[in-house]
Specification:
Structural class: alpha/beta
CATH topology of the largest domain: Rossmann fold
Strand content: 5-15%
Largest sheet: 7 strands, parallel
CATH superfamily of the largest domain: NAD(P)-binding Rossmann-like Domain
Strand order of the largest sheet: 4-3-2-1-5-6-7
Bound molecules: magnesium ion
CATH class of the largest domain: Alpha Beta
Order of helices and strands: EHEHEHEHEHEHEHEHHHHEEEHHHHH
Number of domains: 3
Number of helices: 16
Radius of gyration: 20 Å
Amino acid sequence: MTAKNLVLLGATGSIGENALRIVQAHPDRLKLLAIAGKRRWKPLAKIAKDFAVKHVGIFDDDALAEARASGEFAADTVFYAGLEGLEELACLPEADMVADAVVGTLSLKPALAALNCGKDLALASKEILVMAGKFVTAKAREKNVRILPMDSEHNAIFQCLHGEKMEHVEKLILTASGGPFRDYTAAQMETVTLEAALKHPNWDMGPKVTIDSSTMANKGLEVIEAHWLFGKGREAIDVVVHPQSIVHSMVRYVDGSVLAHLSPPIMTFAIQHALLYPERAAGVDAPCDFTQALQLDFRPPDYGRFPCLRLAMEAMAAEGVAPAVFNASNEVAVDAFVAGKIGYCDIAKTIEATLEAIPAQDPDSLDDIIAADTEARRLAAEQCQLMV
Ligand code: MG
């Protein structure tokens, strides 16, 4: 067995850290060829040293200059600068797989470059499918390469679909923890503070994802991601609130059978499955232990208290640029909330106003999507100003 040469984009984030644990545990199967980060070069220097990585991408020019001058990287390190640098890394001839663990839409071009160069793409960055799923999935089909989901819900669905016929699938059922406010009343939702929104009961993630999961915008993004990954529409995708986050998602077939994927709420299970696919090997974290009592609860989501989820479902049904507009306006609104400029419930109001202002026409090219994204960011920022 030869080890897969892996390019890891977003190596210093929480997905990246978990991916590194898996690389470390399986040196016979995975070899870290290249790493990239946005601007935190110190952790990149440590990773480069620990894993003997020669190819290092740093998006931010100032951070790259500091890294070069620091003397903390080996003398033979090859640095890659900016977005073009990330695209170059994604196409390194020795690379077998590119793992995209970048939060946000920054990695759209590098991910497309990886697919275009015939690399399998292990994908955690949901925003790029939400924004440009039409073009990303078309590119994967054209080049006959795989998109392997590292997001737990999509990885669960991917596993539940194994060996089945897509025409036998009736529903993809994404589970959602419901976040820290799942039992709040509508009135309590109005009083949510930044500090409260940054605490997630089950998962340890970055601030953007944590807030998105508290508003359920995160689940909304995942629903749209599922739509693109598995080619199913609004009528065939549902969300169910499952507070324990042990069932990561389910697939119901036309005969009524429901297949589910279970593991403890730790990211390594999904990430390892994607990185090693189609092989399997011992996991790095302990699996579900059925010698102990285990309770699993399920209930339907409340679209009234979680308008971000409703808006995402509507954006998916509207198709065209609407999912990109949802994503962009959500990013702007979350930033404004984190900066203390708008209230918690203003996040959904900002998204709704932006979606209403931009018609959901079908994009002919990536440029159309980028234009809609830019316009959505501008309008959303204007909305946030109005709410001050
Ligand atoms: Mg997820």
